[in-house]
Design brief:
Blueprint: E1 2-8, E2 11-17, H1 23-30, E3 49-52, E4 55-58, E5 71-73, H2 86-93, H3 103-118, H4 138-144, H5 155-170
Parallel strand pairs: 1-5
Antiparallel strand pairs: 1-2, 3-4, 3-5
């Protein structure tokens, strides 16, 4: 057993864990943060996506001990108190969810993706990778979100919610 301190959603938590415990299992089973979902447990579906220092990761592939001292944000930490994050509201408004199982990972991934885009990081579909400003087209959104699967097929609503949120951020 190893004692580690995780900073999750702004709160410190001390945990005694086996060194091989995934961040996903630490969040769900030890901290009771069950919003982050276990899908494939192989990094292929994105249901377990969380933000670490603002960057999106698949928490099922990460060992909890690797993230001591880093800022971890789960879906539970996205809202501002009782006010949902604008992206969460956009998901509801645009029917970007059906069963909701993948939604926490989709939301966390979208927030990380928007931050990546904001820094000018190109994707495989970026036409001009040297451009100072990359248009956030539907093709860009779909490519950048391709690591997050929705078995219900709510992709059109997810893309619309992300586009709406991105446009709101530019205003």
């Amino acid at each position: 057993m190893v004692e580690i301190k995780l900073r999750v959603n702004g709160a410190e938590a001390a945990l005694d864990l086996e060194p091989r415990v995934s961040l996903l299992d630490a969040l769900r089973e030890r901290l009771g943060l069950t919003g982050t979902k276990k899908g494939c447990d192989q990094g292929a579906c994105g249901a377990c996506t969380v933000l670490v220092d603002g960057e999106r990761i698949n928490s099922c592939l990460a060992l909890a001990v690797q993230y001591e001292g880093r800022d971890i944000t789960t879906i539970e930490g996205i809202a501002d108190g009782d006010r949902p994050h604008p992206l969460q509201t956009a998901f509801v408004r645009n029917d970007g969810l059906q069963c909701g199982y993948c939604t926490p990972g989709q939301v966390c991934s979208a927030l990380g993706m928007l931050a990546e885009h904001e820094t000018g990081m190109p994707s495989i579909v970026t036409e001009d990778v040297a451009a100072e400003s990359i248009p956030l087209t539907d093709a860009e959104i779909r490519e950048r979100m391709s690591g997050n699967l929705c078995r219900c097929g709510a992709y059109n609503g997810i893309v619309a919610a992300i586009r709406e949120t991105a446009e709101g951020m530019r205003r």
